[in-house]
Write a sequence for this structure.
């Protein structure tokens, strides 16, 4: 195997994120080591590594989340402790975990059906 090299640019914010991550995760010896592992993982996991936005009909969907001060503080603490790369990463992970599992999904579906049933009932009573 040859040691071909590639280079890429990061903006100041991205570079700070990498360096903060490395300072908390000493198992990566360098930026290059982290980049190699991240690229390999991205390729191996394929579709599951999509950005936090989804494209629908050529348009990107973005959601805005408003957090209470205590919620924001908890997320910031988790990021500072190195559990997440940034707040977006934490929020995506927390949302995914709250939706995973059949019981949670079934509860969400049941809630939607109940809301629709109530709306139909209200319309019929008018």
């Amino acid at each position: 195997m040859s040691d071909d090299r590639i280079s890429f640019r990061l903006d100041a914010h991205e570079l700070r994120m990498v360096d903060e991550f490395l300072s908390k995760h000493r198992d990566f010896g360098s930026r290059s080591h982290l980049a190699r592992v991240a690229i390999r993982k991205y390729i191996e996991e394929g579709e599951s590594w999509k950005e936090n936005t989804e494209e629908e009909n050529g348009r990107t969907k973005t959601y805005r989340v408003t957090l209470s001060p205590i919620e924001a503080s908890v997320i910031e603490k988790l990021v500072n402790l190195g559990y997440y790369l940034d707040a977006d990463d934490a929020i995506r992970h927390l949302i995914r975990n709250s939706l995973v599992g059949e019981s949670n999904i079934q509860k969400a579906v049941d809630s939607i059906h109940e809301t629709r049933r109530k709306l139909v009932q209200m319309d019929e009573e008018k």
User: Anything to note?
Assistant: The two ends are 75 Å apart (CA to CA). The longest helix spans residues 102-125.
